[in-house]
């Protein structure tokens, strides 16, 4: 199994619910590889001075979420250069047409002229395909927004295998049943995201309890004051019910029956969410005290990852006819 996350430092509730907590749950059932995708972070403008710290911080959040580097392989993408090399070969298999259909590229370039977007942003999904295929991943646990990129991975793996012989495992996507898409609290038809226009709609794992409470209490609902789990017609209320359900382990439909007004729903959701995130924040604080230890863990992770990645890359080079170095 493989999955990845961008090194944004702090993560938001969508990342935690849609991905991280499931990664921790799945690490005992799979040979799990978790990658902090720092090369993907270069596709939009970035701050070189802050990137290393954010990479370490993201690794610490993963561990605070329960990922155990003794059981799972935790590493940084740029420490295993085989990803980039495979990306180049796959660039010559992927087509402009299929990359043009990627919704995330369209969304990220919507407000700007596409001409000024970096080539890396357009090519981003192919690097992701390389991340997955280089570990022979059977399963890729992600949130709903990454489903299309895993579909692309399947298509490219199949195309490659048809042209050059069985080389890659064709992976399956694993999206959680509940919480695969957490929505922005202010714009409940958009996914929760760190780059949202207003930070008020995004709960960060590091938000203090009073900040979480304020954000939940100000969440946009709708004028009819009845509580029902109906994501299509009542997106704001349904998002709150999803968050409450994830935090309490109950079903959102069942929870809806206990409320007649929005006020108590918001109060209970805020309280449950604060308790749900508290252990992550506390474990993070301990880990943050020793960045050297995190860097040591990432070094070991990269060595293990590189062993697997190197073998796959050798297989690929052979399949496409690149002359081995004597
Ligand atoms: P990233 O860093 O944007 O997000 C990390 C994970 O969080 C999930 N997620 C959400 N889940 C539910 N609700 C939301 N609002 C929400 N927002 C984000 C994402 O689906 C993801 O699982 N391209 C990837 C990183 C990547 C990757 C990979 C993933 C690079 N290579 C290989 C899997 C396999 C990304 O930008 O995720």
Number of domains: 2
CATH class of the largest domain: Alpha Beta
CATH architecture of the largest domain: 3-Layer(aba) Sandwich
Largest sheet features: 3 strands, parallel
Oligomer: single chain
Bound molecules: tryptophanyl-5'AMP
CATH superfamily of the largest domain: HUPs
Please count the beta strands (DSSP E, at least 2 residues each).
5
Backbone CA Rg: 21 Å
CATH topology assignment of the largest domain:
Rossmann fold
Treating each run of at least 4 consecutive H or I residues as one helix, how many helices?
12
How far apart lie the N and C ends? 33 Å
- In round numbers, the mean pLDDT is 96
Q: Structural class, judged by helices and strands?
A: mainly alpha
Question: What is the H-and-E element order?
Answer: EHEHEHHHHEHEHHHHH
Q: Which segments are poorly predicted (pLDDT under 50) over 5 or more consecutive residues?
A: none
Strand content: 5-15%
Lateral arrangement of strands in the main beta sheet: 1-2-3
- The proportion of residues forming helix, as a percent range, comes to 40-55%
Shape annotation: globular
Descriptive terms for the model:
single chain, binds tryptophanyl-5'AMP, two-stranded parallel sheet, three-stranded parallel beta sheet, 326 residues, Rossmann fold, mainly alpha, Tyrosyl-Transfer RNA Synthetase
């Amino acid at each position: 199994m493989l999955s990845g996350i961008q090194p944004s430092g702090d993560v938001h509730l969508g990342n935690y619910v849609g991905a991280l907590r499931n990664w921790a749950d799945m690490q005992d059932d799979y040979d799990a590889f978790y990658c902090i995708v720092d090369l993907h972070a270069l596709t939009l403008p970035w701050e070189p001075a802050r990137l290393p710290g954010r990479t370490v911080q993201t690794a610490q959040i993963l561990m605070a979420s329960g990922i155990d580097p003794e059981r799972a392989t935790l590493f940084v993408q740029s420490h295993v250069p085989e990803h980039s090399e495979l990306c180049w070969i796959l660039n010559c298999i992927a087509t402009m047409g299929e990359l043009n259909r990627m919704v995330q590229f369209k969304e990220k370039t919507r407000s700007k002229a596409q001409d000024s977007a970096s080539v890396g942003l357009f090519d981003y999904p192919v690097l992701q395909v390389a991340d997955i295929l280089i570990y022979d991943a059977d399963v890729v646990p992600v949130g709903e927004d990454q489903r299309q990129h895993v579909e692309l991975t399947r298509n490219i793996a199949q195309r490659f295998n048809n042209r050059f012989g069985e080389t890659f495992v064709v992976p399956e996507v694993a999206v959680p049943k509940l919480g695969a898409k957490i929505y922005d609290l202010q714009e409940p038809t958009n996914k929760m995201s760190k780059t949202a226009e207003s930070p008020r709609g995004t709960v960060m794992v590091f938000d203090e309890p009073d900040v979480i409470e304020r954000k939940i209490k100000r969440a946009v609902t709708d004028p009819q004051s009845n509580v029902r789990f109906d994501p299509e017609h009542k997106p704001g209320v349904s998002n709150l019910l999803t968050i409450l359900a994830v935090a309490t382990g109950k079903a959102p439909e069942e929870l809806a029956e206990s409320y007649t007004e929005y006020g108590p729903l918001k109060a209970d959701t805020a309280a449950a969410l604060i308790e749900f995130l508290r252990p992550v924040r506390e474990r993070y604080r301990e880990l943050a005290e020793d960045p050297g230890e995190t860097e040591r863990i990432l070094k070991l992770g990269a060595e293990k990852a590189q062993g697997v990645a190197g073998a796959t890359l050798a297989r690929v080079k052979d399949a496409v006819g690149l002359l081995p170095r004597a």
